[in-house]
């Protein structure tokens, strides 16, 4: 059954549909894999063994009865622990929510349940999705399956590592400044940030509401498209959700066509600060796309240089307000200090104990940026930059159908390497942040291994808002061409992970 | 923290020395079925923390959705206050930590309210009209309700713990803010009361709020400042919070004018602060310091999209507006031919609409007034309900009055009939029959009773014979007592006078 874990979601779906394998077998195989390797990876904060098997058994019964089933019914999935789920804890990677169980399901989780996809468990993340390495989780870092001494990216390192380590064929992530795409890049997996509003945020614990977006994590472009179609579409419970239908994403991924398309290389997202091996792989991808008939053009987005600065004002501002609700009054951690426990002191002690340093750093930054007398200079200016970045994108998309860049400037760094230098950590997201500020969709796919360290490199595709299908169309072509050069999927070259004797769920 | 009370000068002296400037923030709770941003019921008086969804508790991951009916109510209020309606407006977050605010921010509107720049005429009792300029009316959500336990005062100071009920959290509010009101002079307290009364009446008439001040449906924050006569610049203001009855608004404004004057007389500046109103002592005490720099870190609510209006929508809502209360009152008083005093009493008793319906059902305006101001109001006071809440329908009054007019029952018996109807015993006619309440109309038994009464009070009989006809009441009373009320008092009077040979 070990082979099952190496199959794509699409391949699993076909084997399930033809009754070649059962959903219980598929789910059991992944649970076993989690039991065997997650002691080393720490991708999961909670493993949902019983419910996952129950759902899988239900799918098998339904299939035996010839009930109509969703194509992904029985294909298991992992869910980032920022997304609330009934019946399982949701921690957001924080002590603040340790032991908390949501009384409601996120809209995307309801959709997974409707499709009858067994949920394997909840994946690790930087606390409240604040970080680029998953080292800011209150429950220990997740390790990169390519090198256990390296970070799996962040904040969605758990989802990316779970998929890269064959613990799950699919996962959900959330992307505020690159939290799906950058982990995808450094783990050799595929991650998509949909158009803002394309997927309901209801039930995704908010970091920065105007930037957050839930999206798919997978090992192939087609698998992300399959999952994207499950979770996408309008949700009346999310006022910022688009009313458009989700679109023919799977069809776009299956068709995979770039001939005659103009692909724009963003001048500002290369060069200084980018690792040589990253740029080498990136240029190979450009050559492959050119060989497939695409026209490669260069576009300039001069205001992207302000993106990181604007992001680190808007994101903490919104986060400072979104995280105010964690006060020990209604749910989660409550710390009652000695002496007269006034409400102010309980709130203060709870927040002091419940939040980690990075969260506090951002709350303080955001509170400052929104303060009277500073608002215009900080939050106000940042919003103006946001408009400029949107204009840069609009101009670029006049010249190109999709844009392309490296996803992250470097390959995975070592655990602890940047913990003491928040600014260096923030630079990881320099190429992914503009898409969040403009609300446009982005996809990261594996571009190969960097020569100098043998670690995965990510290639990012960006499309105009509501044109997510273009990402899948181009991504599928590039993926096929690259796999041809590699002689198979990149992850086939990942090192073997020592299986431990640890069995069962934690 | 309680400031010294009692240091005030007389109102007359205060007004002689200073010119008061007023300003009001009135919060109106809408009576929408659901809350401002969630599908939880908007209902008063339910078991604490039952009308809540994850959104109202601010649980992780939740998102707000704007209540479209509340937006329409806001626009209607704006139109009734002669405001301009914004083509596009945003919600904003007002950030502050307090346990009655589940998200630790209130979703409100900041820079661009849905309605702005209005005005409303306020008519005082003597007919003087003040025009109050409205700065804005904006949408927001109510907070939960805190109950402080274990202390003697019910306030947070000294309490051992506090209970919080989030049923009210998220209830739609419209905050109506006036521009500074100048020139009211000695009429300031009266104007304050009249202004709040008009707002209450407008929102009630629009049907957008239950407008019951005792339930907090309409809550007033009253701003008062004084300046020496002739000076243009405003003085420092205080904001007396949550003054929740019309009488209290009047008293609070009056008190603050007296207190400000006393403070200013000593040469001390007024401290810009909120004040608490105490109904028992009819005075205010210091709340918290309030400066213009209170930092709520407002920013646009990123979880909501802008509210966009258009002319067709606004025109439709405008067309649906009911007749303005002031115009309606003028029309009804003229139609009913009530004196000013009679009409004022009817309005104050809250039975104007009931009388209108009853007249429409087919009795005269004076009969409708007799019922609603008399028996029904009396019962309402006993039951601590509004007269309209007793379940007395216009049709019931028409039938009861018909029985009286036909001489089948008298006024006294009609009260028993009403008892029976309200107890579910059937229609008035059925109750009359079942309870055997018909008036004794056979003169035989009546004459017997009259003779008995005359014999019992020979001195009274003598007075009547002597021409003191007003003394007949005592004999009538005796007869009514003897017949246990089942006699037509008018007929009894006639018979007594006949018996005594006196001309009525």
Automatic annotation (TrEMBL), chain A:
This is Glutamyl-tRNA(Gln) amidotransferase subunit A. Residues 25-471 form the Amidase domain. Heterotrimer of A, B and C subunits. The active site is at residues 80, 155, 179. Allows the formation of correctly charged Gln-tRNA(Gln) through the transamidation of misacylated Glu-tRNA(Gln) in organisms which lack glutaminyl-tRNA synthetase. The reaction takes place in the presence of glutamine and ATP through an activated gamma-phospho-Glu-tRNA(Gln). The keyword ATP-binding applies. The keyword Cytoplasm does not apply. Belongs to the amidase family. GatA subfamily. Keywords: ATP-binding, Ligase, Nucleotide-binding, Protein biosynthesis, Transferase. One of its GO terms (molecular function) is ATP binding. It comes from the Bacteria. Its EC number is 6.3.5.7. One of its GO terms (biological process) is translation. One of its GO terms (cellular component) is glutamyl-tRNA(Gln) amidotransferase complex.
TrEMBL record, chain B:
Keywords: ATP-binding, Ligase, Nucleotide-binding, Protein biosynthesis, Transferase. Residues 274-295 are annotated as: Disordered. It catalyses: L-glutamyl-tRNA(Gln) + L-glutamine + ATP + H2O = L-glutaminyl-tRNA(Gln) + L-glutamate + ADP + phosphate + H(+); L-aspartyl-tRNA(Asn) + L-glutamine + ATP + H2O = L-asparaginyl-tRNA(Asn) + L-glutamate + ADP + phosphate + 2 H(+). InterPro entries: Asn/Gln-tRNA_amidoTrfase_suB/E, Asn/Gln-tRNA_Trfase_suB/E_cat, Asn/Gln_amidotransferase, Asn/Gln_tRNA_amidoTrase-B-like, GatB, GatB_Yqey_C_2, Gln-tRNA_amidoTrfase_suB_CS, Gln_synth/guanido_kin_cat_dom. Coiled coil: none annotated. Residues 353-500 form the Asn/Gln amidotransferase domain. The keyword Cytoplasm does not apply. Its EC number is 6.3.5.-. The keyword Transit peptide does not apply. One of its GO terms (molecular function) is asparaginyl-tRNA synthase (glutamine-hydrolyzing) activity. One of its GO terms (biological process) is translation. It holds the Pfam family GatB_Yqey. It is an enzyme of class 6 (ligase). Allows the formation of correctly charged Asn-tRNA(Asn) or Gln-tRNA(Gln) through the transamidation of misacylated Asp-tRNA(Asn) or Glu-tRNA(Gln) in organisms which lack either or both of asparaginyl-tRNA or glutaminyl-tRNA synthetases. The reaction takes place in the presence of glutamine and ATP through an activated phospho-Asp-tRNA(Asn) or phospho-Glu-tRNA(Gln). Heterotrimer of A, B and C subunits. Belongs to the GatB/GatE family. GatB subfamily. PANTHER family: GLUTAMYL-TRNA GLN AMIDOTRANSFERASE SUBUNIT B MITOCHONDRIAL AND PROKARYOTIC PET112-RELATED, GLUTAMYL-TRNA(GLN) AMIDOTRANSFERASE SUBUNIT B, MITOCHONDRIAL. NCBIfam families: gatB, PRK05477.1-2, PRK05477.1-3, PRK05477.1-4. This is Aspartyl/glutamyl-tRNA(Asn/Gln) amidotransferase subunit B. The gene is gatB.
């Amino acid at each position: 059954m070990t082979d099952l874990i190496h199959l794509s979601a699409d391949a699993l779906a076909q084997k399930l549909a033809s009754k070649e394998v059962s959903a219980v077998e598929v789910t059991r195989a992944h649970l076993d894999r989690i039991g065997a390797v997650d002691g080393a990876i720490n991708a999961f904060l909670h493993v949902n063994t019983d419910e996952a098997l129950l759902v899988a058994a239900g799918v098998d019964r339904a299939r035996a009865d010839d009930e109509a089933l969703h194509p992904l019914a029985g294909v298991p999935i992992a869910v980032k622990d920022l997304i609330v789920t009934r019946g399982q804890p949701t921690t957001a990677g924080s002590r603040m929510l340790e032991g908390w169980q949501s009384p409601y399901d996120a809209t995307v989780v309801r959709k997974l349940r409707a499709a009858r996809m067994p949920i394997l468990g909840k994946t690790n993340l930087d606390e409240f999705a604040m970080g680029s390495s998953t080292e800011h989780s209150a429950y220990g870092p997740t390790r990169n399956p390519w090198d256990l001494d390296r970070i799996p990216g962040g904040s969605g390192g758990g989802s990316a590592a779970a998929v890269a380590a064959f613990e799950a064929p699919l996962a959900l992530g959330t992307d505020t400044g690159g939290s799906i795409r950058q982990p995808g890049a450094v783990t050799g997996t595929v991650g998509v940030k949909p158009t803002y509003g394309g997927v309901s945020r209801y039930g995704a614990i908010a970091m920065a509401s105007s930037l957050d977006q839930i999206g798919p994590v997978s090992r192939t472009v087609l698998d992300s498209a399959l999952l994207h179609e499950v979770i996408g579409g309008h949700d009346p419970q999310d006022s910022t959700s688009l009313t458009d239908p989700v679109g023919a994403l799977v069809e776009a991924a299956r068709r995979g066509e770039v001939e005659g398309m103009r692909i724009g290389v963003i001048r500002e997202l290369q060069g200084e600060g980018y690792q040589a091996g990253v740029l080498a792989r990136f240029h190979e991808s450009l050559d492959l796309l050119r060989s497939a008939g695409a026209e490669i053009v260069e576009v300039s987005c001069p205001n992207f240089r302000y993106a990181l600065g604007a992001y680190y004002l808007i994101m903490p501002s919104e986060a400072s307000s979104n995280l105010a609700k964690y006060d020990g009054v209604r749910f989660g951690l409550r710390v009652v200090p000695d002496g007269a426990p006034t409400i102010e002191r309980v709130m203060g002690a709870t927040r002091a104990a419940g939040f980690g340093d990075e969260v506090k750093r951002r709350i303080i930054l955001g509170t400052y940026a929104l303060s009277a007398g500073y608002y215009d200079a900080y939050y106000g200016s940042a919003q103006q930059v946001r408009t400029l970045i949107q204009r840069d994108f609009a101009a670029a998309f006049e010249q190109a159908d999709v844009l392309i860049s490296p996803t992250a400037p470097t390959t995975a760094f070592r655990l602890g390497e940047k913990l003491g230098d928040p600014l260096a950590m923030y630079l990881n997201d320099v190429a992914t942040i503009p898409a969040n500020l403009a609300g446009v969709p982005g996809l990261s796919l594996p571009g190969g291994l960097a020569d100098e360290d043998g670690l995965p490199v990510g290639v990012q595709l960006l499309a105009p808002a509501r044109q997510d299908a273009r990402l899948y169309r181009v991504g599928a072509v590039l993926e096929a061409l690259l796999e041809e050069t590699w002689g198979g999927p990149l992850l086939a070259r990942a090192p073997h992970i020592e299986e431990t004797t640890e069995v069962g769920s934690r | 923290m309680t400031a010294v009370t009692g240091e005030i000068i007389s109102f007359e002296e205060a007004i002689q020395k200073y010119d008061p400037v007023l300003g009001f923030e009135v919060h109106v709770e809408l009576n929408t079925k659901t809350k401002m941003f969630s599908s939880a019921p908007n209902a008063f008086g339910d078991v604490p923390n039952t009308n809540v969804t994850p959104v109202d508790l601010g649980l992780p991951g939740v998102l707000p959705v704007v209540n479209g009916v509340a937006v329409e109510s806001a626009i209607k209020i704006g139109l009734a206050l002669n405001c301009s309606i914004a083509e596009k407006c945003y919600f904003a977050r007002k950030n502050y930590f307090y346990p009655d605010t589940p998200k630790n921010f209130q979703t409100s509107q900041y820079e661009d309210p849905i309605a702005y720049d209005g005005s409303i005429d306020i008519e005082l009792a003597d007919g003087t009209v003040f025009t109050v300029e409205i700065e804005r009316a904006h949408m927001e959500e109510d907070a939960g309700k805190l109950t402080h336990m274990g202390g003697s005062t019910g306030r947070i100071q000294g309490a051992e713990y506090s209970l919080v009920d989030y049923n009210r959290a998220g209830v739609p509010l419209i905050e109506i803010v006036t521009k500074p009101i100048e020139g009211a002079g000695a009429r300031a307290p009266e104007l304050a009361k009249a202004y709040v009364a008009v707002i209450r009446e407008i929102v009630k008439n629009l049907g957008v709020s239950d407008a019951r001040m005792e339930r907090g449906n309409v809550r007033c924050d009253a701003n008062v400042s004084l300046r020496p006569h002739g000076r243009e610049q405003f003085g420092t203001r205080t904001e007396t919070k949550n003054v929740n009855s019309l009488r209290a608004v009047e008293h609070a404004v009056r008190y603050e004018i007296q207190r400000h004057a006393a403070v200013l007389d000593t040469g001390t500046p007024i401290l810009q602060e909120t004040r608490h109103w105490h109904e028992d002592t009819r005075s205010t005490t210091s709340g918290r310091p309030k400066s213009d720099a209170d930092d709520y870190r407002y920013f646009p609510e990123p979880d909501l999209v802008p509210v966009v209006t258009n002319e067709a929508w606004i025109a439709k809502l405008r067309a649906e507006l009911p007749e303005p209360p002031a115009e309606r009152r003028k029309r009804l008083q003229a139609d009913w031919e009530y004196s000013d005093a009679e009409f004022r009493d009817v309005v104050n008793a809250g039975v104007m609409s009931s009388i209108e319906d009853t007249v429409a059902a087919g009795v005269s305006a004076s009969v409708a007034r007799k019922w609603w101001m008399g028996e029904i109001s009396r019962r309402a006071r006993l039951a601590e309900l509004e007269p309209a809440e007793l379940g007395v329908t216009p049709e019931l009054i028409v039938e009861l009055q018909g029985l009286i007019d036909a001489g089948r029952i008298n006024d006294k018996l009609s009260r028993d009939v009403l008892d029976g109807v309200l107890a579910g015993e059937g229609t008035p006619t059925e109750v009359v029959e079942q309870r055997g309440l018909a008036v004794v109309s056979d003169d035989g038994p009546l004459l017997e009773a009259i003779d008995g009464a005359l014999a019992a009070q020979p001195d009274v009989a003598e007075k009547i014979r002597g021409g003191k006809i007003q003394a007949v009441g005592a004999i009538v009373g005796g007869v009514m007592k003897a017949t246990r009320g089942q006699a037509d008092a008018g007929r009894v009077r006639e018979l007594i006078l006949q018996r005594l040979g006196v001309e009525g």
